Amino acid sequence: MKPRTSASSQGPRGGRDCAWTVLCTLTLLGLLAALPAEAQEAATEPAYRAFPLIGSRLAVWAVAQLHLNFAAFILGVPIFAVIIEIVGWRTGEGRYDWLSHELVKLTFAAFSTTALLGALLLFLFVGYYPRFWTYMTSIFFPTYWIYALLFFAETFTVYLWYYGWDWLAGPRKWIHVGLGVLSNLFGTAILVVANSWVTFMISPAGITESGALKGSVWAAINNFTWMPINIHRLIANIVFGGTIAAAYAAFRFLAAKTDEERARYDWMGYIGNFVALSAFIVLPFAGYYLGREIYAFNQTMGITMMGGFMSWLWIIQAILIGILFLGSNYYLWLGMERIPGSERYRKYVPPMLIVLTLGFMIWATPRSLVVTLDEARAMGGTHHPVLGVLGVMSAKNTVVNLMILTTFLSYILYRRANKVPTKPWVRTGMAVQWAAFGLAGAVVVFYGVYGYFVESIVRIGFSVYQVVAVLGALVLVMALDIPMFRGARSTGTIRWGTIAPRSQYVLILLAVTFTWLMGLMGFARSGIRQHWHVYGVMRDTSVDAVTPALGYAANVITLVTIAFFALVMFIFWLGGLAEKGTASAHGHAPAPAIAGGRAPDA
Amino acid sequence: MSLLRSRFVQAVLIVVLSFVALRWGIRPPAPWSVIQIYMAVVVMAVLIYVSADSDSWRAFVRPLWSTLVDPDKRNVRLACLVVLPLLLGYYAYTQAAARPQAPPELRAVHPAPPAAIQFRGKEIDISGVDNPLRKDPAALRTHVAAGADIYVRNCMYCHGDNLDGKGHFAPGFNPPPANFQDPGTIAMLQEAYLFWRIAKGAPGLPKESTPWNSAMPAWEDRLTEEQIWQVITYLYDATGQQPRRREAAH
User: B222 to chain A, minimum CA–CA distance in Å?
Assistant: First the structure.
């Protein structure tokens, strides 16, 4: 394997990044050390201070969302970057090593911004919500130290991982891969610690009636929604990282001057989308688990979230996720054009599109209808007898499972587009695969319909059977597909770089949609607490103690999303500048050419 | 038939037929707000259909391009120049013109209950209390009968003798009284939720999602705690629905 980018080629900018991150971390630690003194003085302090012009809540909201976007990116990307590095290491294909380094480079560029935003968020809490922060500190102070230490460990491991790319190449590659794995473990641990604070605010545990810690802090950490959010955020971070990396690749593809560059970034975009899609397929299951746990924790909170004033939020969510499903599939279908032999699978596109479209429509059917008086009279009330059937979870769970199956089918067809299997058991294998798809679809539809005839708690249990059927089909089909197409006859090599440019706009659209969706879900998670800082324990008595309307929230989310992408573009542009300025001076190794699905240097 | 093979014509036909099916195929008519969502999805899907491969996209764009630039399409261009703005203008007029009816309203189906309520000086934990009458299965039929009596005396006039929300006074209310036969109402709720709604009625509805415009009286001054549980027991028994049970805590 050819040695790749020289670490020293990062030049002074990399050093500045490092210095910034360390400075932020030290500031954070200094602030943490000062917190007990801060807490003693809090009794004499006002409960709130007003942030100039926009108010404290909006300031915290915007910075928190931005920080979470960046944090999700820098935690999500290394997860698949290390997997890609391992693939490159084991197969000896240089392009995977290049891609992994490219991905870590993106993470690296965003690292200091994440730390800066985190520090800013902490300042805002301490300065503008002193009583709330004092209370949180009284519960979680021991975890602050763990968080800070993990942050140090994560920072230095990632820096070593990045800068040691060439130093730890060749026979020492296993150490390098180990560093990647270790940085992911530290990153996930950071996520899990921070989640304990935010989930405690939703579903407090381990405290007395007056809100004081009863025993160990572990009871407060291990609260009702902690583990569901850990799982949900971990998966969502991978999706988010994949979409942002794919959007970056799309941007580079559209700006590419040469065919070789176009081919390279086409491939990178494909991998980014593949990663996002793979994690996205299981994300609805994690989301459903989280929603179910919230409902089980507190009916009021569950109803506020699903049937109350937030019910239309889920229609917007359904529309966004529908766009993600349609967009991901569309990208795969467009991508098949660059694969010789894919023509034989074109006929499957219209039926798959019909399933996705109908599924999208049913998922976006509201239960709380917006109706005029005339329409209500025509319907005999505010409830529609036909649409009402589609507006409940039985219908929505059914279609989302069918959409997942369809998306998986899209991927399977893409995967085998230029391959003709030669194994003697192909017919049987194919039959079993189709049977698995059919059976899973039948199980999903059966329990979806049966769900209308049983009580709520039984119906909720049916969703587990639907999920198991779909996941079972996914595993079985993939387990057969891999050996079946091993050593298959090729109908031609993939013509990387020849994909229609509109596909790249789809990748950018997916990234923007997912970022907006993250903002919306953040609003939902925070909004269900209504007028509580810590639900049922610490009331919000500030001037902002009103849950904002969905329209207002949508405007804030949109502005923050724009700010996030502006920052991301700026950071990536800076990264590009560094590349241009130092590449030749430091003997920057050329990126591998991507053509025909294999790199020539492999 | 060659016209039907045109990608552009196919796309227009799919959009038009979908609109016809959604607008006139669903009975009673679906609200306009839902049709708008559905049509947006259909248009998105049609655009994907025509552009999912380059040949198809070229075939779709060709008539549009030809209309815009071909010299022999001058008359069609002029017609479009007149007709399209007129159509948009008419649409704008229909949206902006004043109509003698209230604007559309978004109603939350299930208002969020408080964690606890005060009932005649006693605190009742809405997020944790279960129907106490179900603890003694032997006496359940007696409670159901008592609940039926209470229902007929107090609730039937609005909610109907079939519990379908079509009582004597129902046509006078907007929104109409709840239909308990609908699997989307009491079957989705825990019994404590019904206790809150019956005890506190419209005056006890939360401030969010107002105006509720509900005519439901607060029954806490007229019915005892046991009577409210009895009528709840009757509602589930008479409709054949099961109350939502609590899930086990982890």
Answer: 26
What's the rounded mean pLDDT across residues B227-246? 92
The CA-atom distances, in angstroms, between A52 and each of A49, A57, A128, A553 are 9, 11, 11, 20
Interface contact B54, partner A, CB < 8 A: yes
Token pair belonging to A280: 């996205």
Q: pLDDT tens digits, residue range A269-306? A: 999 999 999 999 889 889 988 988 888 888 778 888 88
Residue A396, SS3 per DSSP: helix
> Using CB atoms and an 8 Å cut-off, which of residues 97-136 of chain B contact chain A?
101-115, 126-127
Domain range holding A574?
16-341+491-582
Is residue A579 very low, low, confident or very high in pLDDT (cuts 50, 70, 90)?
low
Residue pLDDT, tens place only, A135-181: 999 999 999 999 999 999 998 999 999 999 988 888 899 999 999 99
DSSP symbols for A77-124:
HHHHHHHHHHHHHHH--HHHHHHHHHHHHHHHHHHHHHHHHHHHHHHH
Do both B74 and B144 map to the same domain?
no
Whether residue A368 and residue B127 make contact (CB cut-off 8 A), yes or no, is no
User: Which pLDDT belongs to residue A373?
Assistant: 76
Instruction: Out of A322, A353, A530, name the one closest to residue B49 (CB).
Output: A353
Backbone angles phi, psi at B243, to 5 degrees: -70, 155
Q: What distance in Å separates the CA atoms of residue A589 and residue A601, rounded to the nearest whole number? A: 12
Boundary (domain end) residue, out of B67, B96, B125: B96
- What ipTM goes with this model? 0.84
Instruction: Report CB contact under 8 Å: A326, B45.
Output: yes
Provide the number of structural domains found in chain B: 2
Q: Give the count of domains, chain A.
A: 2
CA separation for the pair B78, B245 (Å, rounded): 66
Residues B166 and B63 in one domain: no
- Give chain B positions within 8 Å (CB) of A322: 41
Can you give the pLDDT at residue B155? 96
Q: Do B26 and A369 touch (CB under 8 A)?
A: no
- What DSSP state is assigned to residue A595? B
d(CA A423, nearest CA chain B) in Å: 31
Task: Say yes or no: A363 and A404 in one domain.
Answer: yes
Identify whether A78 is part of a domain. Answer: yes
Chain B: nearest CA to A531, how far in angstroms?
Answer: 12
A453, with CB counted inside 10 A (0-12, 13-18, 19+), is exposed
Task: Tell me the residues of chain A between 43 and 102 that have a Cβ less than 8 Å away from chain B.
Answer: none
DSSP collapsed to 3 states, A301-318: HHHHHHCCCCHHHHHHHH
- Domain encompassing residue B211: 116-239
